[in-house]
Design goal:
This is DUF7344 domain-containing protein. It holds the Pfam family DUF7344. InterPro entries: DUF7344. It is a single chain. The chain is mainly alpha-helical. It has one domain: Arc Repressor Mutant, subunit A (Orthogonal Bundle), CATH 1.10.10. The chain contains 5 helices and 3 strands; from the N terminus they run H-H-E-H-H-E-E-H. A hairpin with a 4-residue loop joins strand 2 and strand 3. Helix 2 packs across helix 5 and helix 3 crosses helix 4. The longest helix has 22 residues. The two termini are 25 Å apart.
Length: 117
């Protein structure tokens, strides 16, 4: 789903959760699709759930991404989430908002940037 009319307030709301910031941060320097598993590993690597073990953290992150965060980002038109193949791809809307997304991710004192897979 592509929504070219995304507004800045909507972008800020989408970036409110650290897991979504990590996911969006992954695509700042990447234009190709990636797997939900790889994104979950990035979330765990950036310590978004410090109380979890690496295995449970990855499982929790995968579930949260698949059921909550990726559908929100897809609905807003920033990412395309293929739940059947477990792939995520940035959209042209993401490309247009990339400078603002980059600034938001960069401003997070808890995230080390760039966010790599």
């Amino acid at each position: 789903m592509c929504n070219d009319a995304i507004e800045f307030d909507t972008l800020l709301d989408l970036c409110r959760h650290v897991r979504r910031r990590v996911v969006l941060g992954v695509f700042i320097d990447r234009s190709e699709s990636t797997t939900v598993t790889a994104l979950a590993e990035a979330v765990v690597e950036h310590d978004c759930d410090a109380s979890a073990t690496p295995r449970t953290g990855r499982t929790n992150a995968t579930i949260a991404l698949s059921h909550r965060h990726l559908p929100k980002l897809d609905s807003a038109g920033l990412l395309e989430y293929d739940s059947t193949n477990h792939l995520v791809t940035p959209t042209s809307t993401f490309d247009r908002w990339k400078p603002q997304i980059g600034a938001i991710v960069e401003a997070d004192p808890e995230l080390e940037t760039p966010i790599d897979l």
